[in-house]
Amino acid sequence: MSATMTKPTTRKVVKKVDGVCVVYSDGSIRLDKVRLSYPWVGKPQKNVNERTGEETLSYSLSAMLPKETHRAAMEACSEAVKALEKQMTAKGKGKAGAPFKYQNTKKFIKNGDAKDEDGEPLFPNNPEYAGHWIVNARSPNQPQIRSAQRDVETGKPARLTAEQAQKLIYGGCYATVLIRPWPQDNAYGIRANSELLAVQWQSKGTPFGNANRLDEDDIDDSLDTEDVNEADDGGFGSDDEL
How far apart are CA 238 and CA 240, in angstroms? Predict the structure, then answer.
């Protein structure tokens, strides 16, 4: 007699707002229909610590949450920050016994319309952040990457390779992002961070900056070739004429 083993389910949906966000019992949060900015998903970004000179590699992105539609997602992230503050208070991090509070610049979620102490935009190089809340997520490990299409064999979202992600996921596209908030408390500072767990491409969007730069394969496919011996010198002549 054989018994079918089933994987115990401990992770449950705590809150769900269709098309906006899902909050899970393990503390992770899914952000739906967000626009990506500065995505480093297919390959890692090199970071240099200004104080120590130490170099590290990490995967990261900024998710733009439209204020018109994603208030529930903002509230879910804000509640997660409050939960982290309670943890820090329990560790005695509050001043003079007061509850611990993160500075706004030390939170993984920020107001895209915020001003600094001088009244200048907090994100002067990102005018597209206006009207959004910005969620920053990072991880030393490559996140799981999926497409919006279903894998015919598994019935689950199709997996994307790092190479496919490099072409498909860019600043300006739309995606679903899975994050897990966590409290940083070490020699590098105290912050409310979020770990980047997964990214699912959803749809195209107008690229930001030079995000629409063609890769080498696209360049090669766009150009014609001719035999080297028959090629024109381009008007520059030979080296002997210099």
Answer: 5
Delineate the domains of the chain, giving CATH numbers in brackets. Answer: 13-226 (2.40.50.140)
Rounded CA separation 135/138 (Å): 10
pLDDT in tens, 97-120: 899 999 999 999 999 999 888 889
Please count the helices (runs of H) and the strands (runs of E) in the chain: 3, 10
Return the amino acid letter for 8: P
Q: How far apart are CA 40 and CA 228, in angstroms?
A: 38
Answer yes or no: pTM beyond 0.85: no
Place of tokens 């596209």: 173
Residue 68: CB atoms within 10 Å: 8
Cα 139 from Cα 65, distance rounded (Å): 20
Strand partners, 203: 174
The answer to whether residues 74 and 66 touch, using CB atoms and an 8 Å cutoff, is no
Q: How far is CA 125 from CA 7, 108, 130, 208, in A?
A: 47, 18, 11, 11
Beta-carbon count within 10 A of 164 CB: 15
The predicted-structure confidence for 229-239, as pLDDT tens digits, reads as follows 443 333 333 33
